[in-house]
Amino acid sequence: MSEGFTGTILRVNLTTCRIEKQQHNEEFYRTYMGGGAFGTYFLLKETPGSLDALAAENVLTIAPGVTTGAAVSGLSRCCITALSPETGAVGDSQTGGSIGPTIKRAGYDAIVITGKAKKASYLFVDDDDVQIRDADHLKGRTVLEAHDALTAELGRQGLSILQCGPAGEKMVRFACLLADLNDVAGRTGMGAVFGSKNLRAVVVRGKKRVGFADPDGLKKLARLAVERLDDSGFPNTLRKYGTAGTLATQAEGGNLSTHNYSRSYRSDYSQLDGAAIESRIGAGQTTCFGCVVGCRKKVKADRPYQVTDRIGGPEFETLGLLGSNLDITDPVAVAKANELCNNYGIDTITMGGLAGYLFESLQKGLIPPQAVGDRTLGFGDPDALLWLIELVARREGVGDVLADGFEAAIETFGRQTAAVAVRVKGHGLPAHMPQVKPSQALMYAVCPIGADHMSCEHDWLLADNSETAKGLGILDCGEVDSTGLDKVRMTVYSQYYYSLLDTLCLCMFCWNLGGLFNYGELRDLLRCTTGWDCTLWELMKVGERRVNMMRRLNARRGLTRRDDRLPEKLGTPLPDGPAKGKRVDPEAFAGMLDRYYELMGWDLATGNPTRGKLLELGLGWTV
Ligand code: SF4
User: Fold this and answer.
1) Would you say residue 461 has pLDDT above 90?
2) Ligand 1 geometric centre to CA of 242 (Å)
3) Which of the listed residues 73, 239, 240, 298 should we mutate to test ligand 1's pocket, taking the one with most ligand atoms within 8 A of CB?
4) Average pLDDT for 569-586
5) What is the 507 CA–ligand 1 centroid distance (Å)?
6) What is the mean pLDDT of residues 22-27?
7) Which of 241, 364, 366, 389 is the most buried (most CB within 10 A)?
């Protein structure tokens, strides 16, 4: 096997120090293809339903996909999957950069890690040579410091580092992973899983050639991206301003989380938009392996806060959650908060959501001021936020309470605070407002990993690309505000497609609606990399299979329909802005949920995959 995949998955047990290279046949690869499907496969095979996410037996998979390694735009993402310490459900997070292609060049289709090292360690994969090494010298050091120490030790050439930061070491439940210094696998607490295994970093050097079925065909696809970029809408905006370049559009539509999701608009939003950030603190950009878009923006500032350009700048979600959602509109302050989170290894989305929860609880008198010590905390105060991030990273005082996530904080501060805790399955909401985007309302609730904005199509983007969407069988995407069958069908179809992208580890910015490639070219990509002549139907089934595997895993862990619920706060009409009066109507939402389970072929009462659905997808082995 040499086309698109090596046939070898690296298995490392940190308890026994056993390192093995496991072989899988072509049918395995064509059925699961990579990324989050690989990770969920190993979780289903090897973990009991009762396993604690911080237990040594949790199975952590770092997986690119069968197309990874080709020098075509948008192929370079990598999935990290394990049971989530943040939600208790399946955890799954993606990063860009070069870690995925480097794993392929080292000769592996995935790295699967189990067990727990006796002391702080890092895994060094240098092609065939795999070592578990001492990481005592990295303990407590920031991401930047650890990165510099590792590159000084091992050299920079061809090296890619995935590390958890000091927050992960302390098992902050929403600790993230940094891929080198500019890319982040932010969600579901994969950094805490590293910490629970005494694993500070996975360092990979790969010098082998990845073989593909049709290298000339791949060169043609690579050229198409170059030719189309200038005239593309969304990717071209990303090239200029990064994801921050979308903030003005979202704000003008009343879709920007503000004051802990109490509002969705602020008149001074332009201070946080990509153009303003670029002119005030822009410091260049980087790109993922092989991608012409280069959307990873860097920032640098001296005043009022010093911000380094060595670590990635704030993305749209971060500007929303650490900025607008906390009524902070100075981009330098948000950039500093982002730098702190990245340097400690903390997910900016959940961090912003928890800070909003705390600030609103204090503001409304739901908890007494002395509960957070003698420091005054509140909205619009960047120094309060920076102080809070430090406490979370160190697990000190109120930071120690927040470090265990929403449900633990509610338990500590009291049930009266639950009304201002904006989360699903314990997972903080992204900056897109479910009151304004019904597809996101539904997906935030049903997504197996908790609220996620990258798991189905957004109503607005679909409306702008309705002709292209017909290629997925979405013939009628309905009104933007619709909560009817048309919207649910669109959500289901696009969820399969997004899930496919997370299986192949393709970037949505390049391979989705409004991106650089079309669905026919996705089939070309599979043919050119693997030699497989896949139909779009087969590929959509791969995406559907991953979603069902994740829900099956969650069902085994006791999750049901009652976990697919939105925060009660979203039922209150928005008070102002372009989306004034909009809310999540509980009755309409319940109807969407019913239709969704029906269309997915899941049980209406439990919201879990039926035996028939699992058998249809070749997942009878999970029953
Ligand atoms: S569009 Fe941006 S995130 Fe996506 S592959 Fe290219 S550089 Fe990476």
Assistant:
1) no
2) 9
3) 73
4) 97
5) 6
6) 96
7) 389
Within 83-233, residue ranges assigned H as helices are: 99-105, 143-154, 165-169, 190-196, 215-229
Q: What is the pTM of this model?
A: 0.97
Residues of each domain in the chain carrying CATH 3.60.9.10:
8-205
Q: Which atom from ligand 1 is nearest to the alpha carbon of 97?
A: 8
- Mean pLDDT of all residues belonging to the chain: 96
Which residues of the chain does CATH 1.10.569.10 include? 244-428
Query: Is residue 294 lining ligand 1, measured as CB closer than 6 Å?
Result: yes
Residue 264 has pLDDT above 80, yes or no: yes
Answer for the pair 452, 347: CB distance below 8 angstroms, yes or no: no
- Residue range 160-187: mean pLDDT, rounded: 97
Mutation test residue for ligand 1: of 180, 243, 292, 510, the one with most atoms within 8 Å of CB: 510
Q: What is the pLDDT of residues 509-540, one digit of tens each?
A: 999 988 999 999 999 999 999 999 999 999 99
| Residue 74 beta carbon below 6 angstroms from any ligand 1 atom | yes
Neighbours of 524 (CB within 10 A): 18
Separation between Cα atoms, residue 240 and residue 255, nearest integer Å: 22
151, 217, 293, 296, 327 from 232: Cα distances, Å: 37, 22, 10, 18, 33
Residue 517 tokens read as: 């490639």
Euclidean distance between CA atoms 564 and 336, whole angstroms: 34
* Domain 438-622 classification at class level: mainly alpha
The predicted-structure confidence for 94-139, as pLDDT tens digits, reads as follows: 999 999 999 999 999 999 999 999 999 999 999 999 999 999 999 9
CATH superfamily of 8-205: Aldehyde ferredoxin oxidoreductase, N-terminal domain (3.60.9.10)
Q: Answer yes or no: is the C-beta of 184 below 6 A from any ligand 1 atom.
A: no
* Ranges of CATH 1.10.599.10 domains, the chain: 438-622
In sequence order, which residues have a C-beta less than 8 Å from that of residue 474 and are 6 or more positions away?
462, 466, 489, 490, 493, 494
Strands 8-13 and 110-114: parallel
Domain covering 244-428 in this structure, CATH number: 1.10.569.10
Q: Ligand 1 atom closest to Cα of 96? A: 8
Chain-centroid distance of CA 90 in Å reads: 13
Contacts with 465 (C-beta within 8 Å, 6 or more apart), sequence order: 513, 514
Tell me the best of 221, 240, 292, 295 to mutate to test the pocket of ligand 1, counting ligand atoms within 8 Å of each CB and taking the most: 295
Contact (CB, 8 A) for 92 and 79: yes
* 63, containing H or E segment: strand 60-63
Residue 85 pLDDT greater than 80, yes or no: yes
Return the ligand 1 atom nearest residue 510 CA: 1
**pLDDT per residue as tens digits for the range 311-323:** 999 999 999 999 9
CA 287 to ligand 1 center in whole angstroms: 6
Strands (E) in 223-277, as ranges, are none
- Residues forming beta bridges with residue 282, ordered by sequence position: 299
Residue closest via CA to ligand 1's atom 2 equals 295
Q: Are 175 and 354 in contact (CB under 8 A)?
A: no
Burial of 133 (0-12, 13-18, 19+ CB in 10 A): middle
Place 466 in a pLDDT band, splitting at 50, 70 and 90: confident
281 ligand 1 Cβ < 6 A? no
Tell me the HSE value of 581 on the side-chain side, using a 13 A CA sphere.
2
